[in-house]
Design a protein that fits this description.
Nucleoside Triphosphate Pyrophosphohydrolase; NUDIX_hydrolase_dom; eight-stranded mixed β-sheet; EC 3.6.1.55; alpha+beta; NUDIX_hydrolase-like_dom_sf; hydrolase; 215 residues; four-stranded mixed β-sheet
């Protein structure tokens, strides 16, 4: 069992005050309630975060790295319970070893019409994880924070629409879109970000575009 690190405690304390970019603010009355679990822990290489690689066979967000999560069901009672349930279903994580610290403001994914609540948590007692739902998840990774903040792993990714946003190239994954924007915010607000070159711009690979175009 490990204690919550100071940076994560500070982040959770100010989480509800984090400024949400206009393009991620939910429109009035729009979207289905959803939640994702941002689960941070202490791994062999220092602090890390749990990410999944969504199945390439999926209809939405196919093949994309993401936080575990999904829709809030009526029986969940809210986003925290939904995030823990989905994380257990997708990765096998034991919720009893997870210490929930707080939530960020809702963020809107227009692609899937979801109002997503990021749930910030500390992995108090880590458990084994795997792709527990193969039809939804191809793989599960505990990605070290040190690799995420490494300037050599960071890039600005340009979508064919012209929109450009932060991305991370780690563990054979290209983390982009919603997940990368949230990670970028968390690393910055947590005081973990290292200087990197945002003018290093790359185009979103065609095979990633093809997968993302499904649904």
């Amino acid at each position: 069992m490990t204690e919550v690190p100071d940076w994560l405690d500070r982040l959770a304390t100010q989480a509800q005050r984090i400024r949400v970019p206009r393009y991620l603010r939910p429109p009035d009355g729009a979207g289905r309630a959803a939640a994702v679990l941002m689960l941070f822990g202490e791994g062999p290489l220092g602090p890390d975060v749990l990410l999944i690689q969504r199945s390439t066979r999926g209809r939405r967000h196919a093949g994309q790295p993401a936080f575990p999560g999904g829709g809030v069901d009526p029986d969940d009672g809210g986003p925290v319970a939904a995030a823990l349930r989905e994380a257990e279903e997708e990765t096998g994580v034991d919720p009893s070893g997870v210490h929930v610290l707080g939530t960020m403001p809702e963020l809107y994914l227009d692609r899937s019409d979801n109002r997503v609540t990021p749930v910030i948590a500390w992995w108090r007692e880590p458990s084994a994880v795997h792709a527990a739902s193969p039809h939804e998840v191809d793989s599960v990774e505990r990605v070290p924070i040190a690799e995420l903040v490494d300037p050599g792993n960071r890039v600005t990714l340009r979508h064919p629409s012209g929109f450009a946003g932060p991305a991370f190239q780690v563990r054979g994954m290209l983390v982009w879109g919603f997940t990368a924007m949230v990670l970028d915010t968390v690393l910055r607000e947590g005081g973990l970000e290292r200087p990197w070159d945002p003018t290093r711009v790359e185009d979103l690979p065609q095979h990633v575009i093809d997968l993302a175009s499904r649904g």
